[in-house]
Amino acid sequence: MTAVAAAPGDAGTGTPVLRLTDVNTYYGAIHALRGISIEVHPGEIVTLIGANGAGKTTTLKTISGLLHPKQGTVEFEGKDISRVEPHELVTMGIGQAPEGRRIFSRLTVLENLQMGGFTRTKAENDEQLEKVYELFPRLKERASQKGGTLSGGEQQMLAIGRAMMTRPRVLLLDEPSLGLAPILVQQIFAIIQEINSRGITILLVEQNAIQALKIANRGYVLQTGEVVLSGSAADLRENETVRKAYLGED
Hints:
four-stranded antiparallel β-sheet, disordered N terminus, alpha/beta, 10 helices
């Protein structure tokens, strides 16, 4: 594949809030990421697309500290965080809603949200809880309900809401539309745009490339642990290879 140059202004301005430079990440002897370089600028929605096993989730795990790169650097707001532990990254301003939601099924909705805010003060959590309930009125209605009894869409809202309780400056979203009915997919993507409009930068991993490229500013295409294509979302939508491989068009 040939790289697509980003259109002027699509990449944002100033220092990237998140930058991966020549990142190589391993699972034991398996070389999962092979020299990944990615930038996310303040206020952007940037999406990572690619087939299963391309390295998208591994990239998010490397950013969030669940994995550490063997070579290369991960920087957040100009600081090298390649060796920083996950709980420290949360307090620094990196939040994540993981693939598969991973909510606490035996805890109530409110308790799940409170777990998201465990690094913050009570005053901060009280303030943030109201913001989460404003984004997700359904969660307020279900506050005393056990997480495991929620519908799939409600569980996804809870996973994102829990991540929002960390008061993130960058939000990592891993397959937020996975397993949801089409009408709920539209709702989740509208919520992602609303979160972004409130000043939160978003790095989105998503199998639904069509929807992801509709709301993103820019995108990167991953294949077997490498970035094989990058550019503005508009350019990627028009790229013939992307259309055939990821948008289901002939």
